[in-house]
Amino acid sequence: MKILFTAFKGVYNTSFLLVDQTAANYILLTNSFQGLEKDISFVGGDYSIVYMFGVDKELIDKVRIEKCAKYNAETVCTDFDIYYLETMLRSVGVSYSISDKPTRYLCNAAYYHMLKKNSNTVFIHIPSLKGMSVELMNKLIKIFNDICSNENCKSSNSYAKTAKISFLLLDCKSRGCAFVPNEVRDEVQKPSAACGGYSEAQAVKNKEYCGGSGKTTMFLTVASGLSFRQI
Description:
Layout: E1 3-8, H1 14-19, E2 25-29, H2 33-41, E3 49-55, E4 63-66, E5 68-71, E6 74-77, H3 82-91, E7 96-99, H4 105-117, E8 121-126, H5 134-151, E9 166-171, E10 176-180, H6 185-188, H7 200-205, E11 217-222
Parallel strand pairs: 1-2, 1-3, 3-8, 4-7
Antiparallel strand pairs: 4-8, 5-6, 9-10, 9-11
């Protein structure tokens, strides 16, 4: 079965951080109406299921499954088996709600365009970094990797990784706790003068302070790429 995940671009966008930790093929949507419509126009019509992810800043440690989208006065609803997704969420104790009221802005537009192309599409809103606990992120990663395993879906992304290193950034001065995508890996592994010749990752491993731009910034190496941990 051929499955596609979609998320929105942005290094601190939790939808991207989620799909980047799965084994599924995914695309990142542009954060503009014209851009995302163009992105979706390039999606092939041979996907059995499309899982779409977007951020709702009002959500706190729970997710919301969207059933319908509305665009230009036309409402379209999914043919996806919502009960299947409910079962997966309940299996690991994820709190969720289901809405048949279309949302607004980019998520709604993206859902509409994808539903017009493939009615077996479902959109899941997840919390932003502020509302996302490490526990919830880990549960979502497990759920959608399990779905991929059950459906035998494999990533065709040239940059996808089956075993990877992630970093959890703790910026005590400005951001609080935030997930950082794998793209920072190469950068933080470079030798740094600010770290006494160590890379930032090595400095943390050796329990040495490494600060940048006047901020208290530390990186924690996480093996396997399938879970996040707090410092």
